[in-house]
Amino acid sequence: TLALAMRNGVILEPRDIILLAEIYAANQNPFAAGRVFEEAFEDGLLEDTIDNLDKQFRYWLQARERQRAIKSLEQSLEKAADIDRYLQLAQLQMDEQAWHSMRKSVLNACALSLADEYVGRANLLLGISEWHLNNPAAARNAFINATLIGGVVDQANAWLSFIEAETVNASESEAFSGECTPRWAKLA
Q1: How does pLDDT run along the chain (188 residues), one tens digit per residue?
Q2: Which of 58, 64, 132, 139 lies closest to 101 in space, CA to CA?
């Protein structure tokens, strides 16, 4: 009924639009759910709040519509900077092999004062982008940083091995350097 009303141009309340999208998603049609949000945003029927953009992002991701998911994340980041969203965006950009955009997204996340939980992941993503941008020294530094804090140590070590990096010296294994350091390291 809601879908028919929307197709016939009946103005729906925002809660009805969200409900329609949720019904599509619950019935294994995340693409239709994403389209409901897309059309409602275009027609001015639904405000493009961070919550609504996040819902649309999840629908596009479930529908494997990576470019549309990236667009939703970028729109939400225009409204409010967020470390987790920047790193999600960088991951999607990595999947798309958009190395410059990926690097920029990671650096935007790192500029927001990283909590410990994000440091390893941010450095791993930064290292991957730097490697693909033909910056082996910067990649090595980021991968070393990723080994200094839990979460992605094995992956970072695997990358260091893959790029045939110089052996890590004692000073490098004891302190962070570069853009993606934990907030407490920046205070020291």
Answers
A1: 776 667 766 667 899 889 989 999 999 999 999 999 999 999 898 999 999 999 999 999 999 999 999 999 999 999 999 999 999 999 999 999 999 999 999 999 999 988 889 999 999 999 999 999 999 999 999 999 999 987 899 999 999 999 998 888 888 888 888 889 988 876 55
A2: 132
pTM over 0.85: yes
Cα gap 53→50, rounded to integer Å: 5
In angstroms, the Cα distances linking 108 to 50, 80, 113 are 18, 12, 10
3-state helix, strand, coil in the chain (%, to 5): 70, 0, 30
- Burial class of 25 by CB neighbour count within 10 A (0 to 12, 13 to 18, 19+): buried
- Tokens read off for 145: 């940083």
- Taking the mean position of all CA atoms in its chain, how far away is CA 71? 11
The SS3 assignment for 114 reads strand
Q: Are 93 and 101 in contact (CB under 8 A)?
A: yes
- Short-list 187, 145, 183, 179, CA closest to 165: 145
